[in-house]
Amino acid sequence: MNGALRPVALIARREFASRVKGRAFIVGTLVVLLLLGVYAAVVATLASGEDTARVGVAGPAVALTGPLERAAPTEGLTLTVVPQPDVAAGEAAVRAGDLDALVAGDPIRPRVSVESEPDAALERVIVDATSAVARDAYLTGRGVDPAGLDAAVAESGPVVVSAEPPDPQAGQRLGLGLAGAFLLFFSIQTYGAMVAQGVVEEKASRVVEIVLSSVRPWQLLLGKVLGLGAVGLLQLVVLGGAGLAVAGAAGVLSGGAGLVSTVVSVVVWYLLGFALYATVFAAAGSLVSRQEDTQSVLSPITITVLLGFVVGFNLLTSDPRGTAITVISLLPPFSPLFMPARIALGVAPVGQVVLAFALTITFTAVVLALGGRIYANSVLRTGARVSLREAWGRARS
Is Transmembrane helix one of the keywords (predicted)? Predict the structure, then answer.
């Protein structure tokens, strides 16, 4: 290994090992995994809990048996129709909880007996069934065959011709894109701020003075960025993999939805985005010497990223092909957040992806150069907060 890069690797390894073994990383990851597990259990319970009902019919209302069974699926209801020997027996079954309702009397205007009040879906099913019986009786009385009319209506309707066939996986792609954008935002914000806090801690404890007696400032900065970037990437892979597993188990996600390309693009753009933001956070953290002052220098960065994320997220959900989100996804500070999502949705042309990648690489190189110089000229200055003008002035001098 190149002699200049050996200290970088050692620093990166130390940062990675100390963070991964730390309680905050382990507990935080386990908590998120636990929440994903609870979510999967809730979804599975809701999916398995079918909406069912038992309805008794008595007297002339027995004629409603077929219409009730045909109307139930339209309301998502699994209905069991149970003929009753008489009204008294049916009402006793309702009071005992064996039936959800008893339908008796005239099938066009029946009497419905329930324990307290009917379920909304069940009530709609009964209304649909009585309406169907009333309609058929009306048509038959005027010499019209109800079955023939239904067949004629079923054969009618417009024929839709689409210039662009609909994407059956559009919903899955949108979900993958939004999940990728959120995970990137969460990881970059969390571990970028961690870089800044680490810089401030070392300045406050004067450890940085000892470290910089053996390595150069740019080596220390790059080692921190690489080490914490690897930590963030590890957590991103763990949480992302668990999320995909939960989505697959819940039936929300199926195979062949562009998973591989989405995962690859998220990882690549994460690495670019983290290098960019971590350098900015480290340079900002080097301007202060106390943890109490850290938030004051990080707030402008975090607010800018948050506003961009909120605006871009809304644009992505409303119009992923629109001009506004296209422009935002090409801007280097936000490309790592939204270009993977647009790639997952299949709305980002190859030319736009290449342009965004090139712009982000260039912008990141510039930020690394400028941020590294500010870091080098500020990290050894303790005491009062170093203004950006002072740090930049020293960098230029």
Answer: yes
